[in-house]
Amino acid sequence: MDLQSEAQHCGACYFACNDAQHCREGQCTCPDIEVQDLGTAVPPTITGTTAGAPLADDLRCAGPAPQRAFQFTVPPDGGGTYRFDSSGSSANTVIGLIDGNSCGELACRDDLSDESPSFSVILTAHQVVRVVVTSTQGEDSDFEIAIRRLYAPVASSCSPLDIGSTVPQTVTGSVAGMGDLARELCGLAPPGSTDVSFTFTPPHDGTYVFDKTGSSADVELAIYQESCHDPELFYGCSTEEDQRRVILELPGGVPFVVILDGFTGGAGDYSLTITERLPLPCPAVDLGSTVPQTVSDVTLDRASLDVDPGCTGNGVFMSVASYQFTAPADATYSFSTSSSPYDTWNGPGLVVRDGTCSGPELDCVEPNIYDRPSEVSRRLAAGQTVVVGVTCYSDLCRHSLSITMPAEPPCPEIDLGSTVPQSVTGASSGPSFVSSTCSMEGRDPIGPEKTFRFTAPSDDTYVFDTAGSDWNVLTVLDGEDSCSGAVLACNGDLPATRTELPLLAGQSVTVIVDSVFYISNGVALNIYRRDDVGSCASPHDLGSTVPQTVVSSRRVLYDEVDPSCNPGAGTSDEVYAFTAPTDGTYLFSTSSNTSWYTTLSLHDGGCSGTELRCAVSSSTAGGTARAWTIVALTAGQTVNAVVSYSRLRFDLPDDLPSLTIESASTSGTCSAPIELGSAVPLWVRGDATLNADSIPAPCNRAAGPHPDVVYHFTAPAAATYTFSAASSFFSPVVHVLEADCAGATLGCFSASSWIAEGSVTLAAGQVVTIAVEGRDDRSGTFTLDIF
User: Fold this and answer.
1) What sequence ranges are listed for the domain T9SS-like galactose binding (predicted)?
2) End-to-end CA distance of the chain, in Å?
């Protein structure tokens, strides 16, 4: 055992260093870090940069990054509470404080993730501390750390008055003329604020309410365990001027110091009431069976667990008012609540449980801070009893609760007849009368619905979708005159709910578009035949015309092909059949007016045939998104071109993508380069997989051959030109040569990721050859930009 370096036996057997220390030469010391000693004066600011500093990770809230450290010793008269503030530093600055003797971390603050770029600590006279400055994500940081002593050392005791363990109890008085012995951490009472303090010992474990109602507005409340100033024992405070109570779960038999301090330095009267928060009876009020009725009340701060609302996270400080209601008849009942005009920031929520406060939860609406009313609609049987809880995130909410029996509309409401395809739009509002059997991302459809009747015109498979709707669940029921028929299909998938269903000629179904939320929702319902939309079974027949462009015929299509270059995307497909008129090379491309990308895949003979090509669109100038590929076909060969849309919903008519088919040039070799002319900027697309390796690029790191496409470009003026090639499938290489393929290399640019780009200075009229090839033995479609 080496007593000079063993941390568990440093200098002597069983003399262990703490976890933050190292054993060096028989002494427990801090880890080696480069430290600038600032002496015994506490500096008002520390400035500098971490650029060029050694890498370290001495702070728990920062990873390895350049780090600077500064050490100073608190002077004999310098003890007290200090604030370290990095608000004048770069946004990525991290500051920490380490004790120079124990090496323990006193504080650490990341100004990106923490709410404040500062922290406060209590330092004692002669204490050695290290200020450590580093950064997030390993970056350099320019820093300015302001250091200010907030408070002088505090007496070891603030001599609180012992008020025992009685609950409830109220003490009153004034802080005027009292001393400033306590230091609380609420941040509202500056040095010099007068205060009073009391020791209260909870008689047993429980939840206690410290209420300053009746105090002047300039008195704040803070609670510590057994101390007037130790931040490690700080329990809570009234952090806002209008927060009148603090609610804490406290252990029994442990003394707590309750401080009433001058708010913003003021000195006013105080009234402190201490009560125990006991569970209220639940339900608290029996409303009987009267409909309609409205009651007004307040939520109470000690009933949050009585009805255990599942949609609120069971917040400890949430308040609840509970009511019992018994349905007088079989009907749908609406329970709605709104806040008082005085509680504009406390929108109450609702929870409904069957039978008792612990019964099954039927509905739940989370409270909100935007003063939005909450509403729950539920069908109840005659004599069925429910408990309704009005919930609030603050400790007290004034509210009203209304119970009504809204008139039930016919179901289905709208007869769509037998027209296909057809689309209908509208809005759902009011209470919900129908319940769906499926959910959307775990959310049950609890809001208003729209109901429709549809009759199949022929034996066929029909698609029902809600593209263009808000958050809705789609349900299809058997039968034409009722919403109580058997469920044939139900779907709540995102981003658009859709289902397909085989129907017989004349068969009627009820279609329900049900809102996931209680608020009114936009509704869109589309109905069409499964094989009328350009499907694999019935593709759009484009014949053999070249060139041609077609625009998507439908806003919403079916997902039946999983392209290899975009697997598992859940796309919406439209299928086209094209037959090559002659042996040749053909260019297939898509275009969309938005950034909603498309995937283009070509399949030999049909959707189940061999995938010949696959391409995903990339954005180009003007905001369009294109996918393209080039393929060699023989005369009479038929391919299915599958255009897959990256979104299943298209809300605007001009968002429909198009498909263009044209003959592709077979040139692009050293003997037959593609002439680009002199226009700049220019953009061309190509596919290197169909060509040979005409001219090897000296900057291609992989051994060939590398299929390439060769171009001629003539500089229109003496200037520096940028040549940029991009691909979604391989890393391109751009090779620029003087005159032709036999000329000298003017530039060679290999892709750092998916783009190869570089600049060459050319004279007016100078002709260059540009060869684009793949790196690492890969190739495919690409774009070439010159500007």
Assistant:
1) 558-620
2) 71
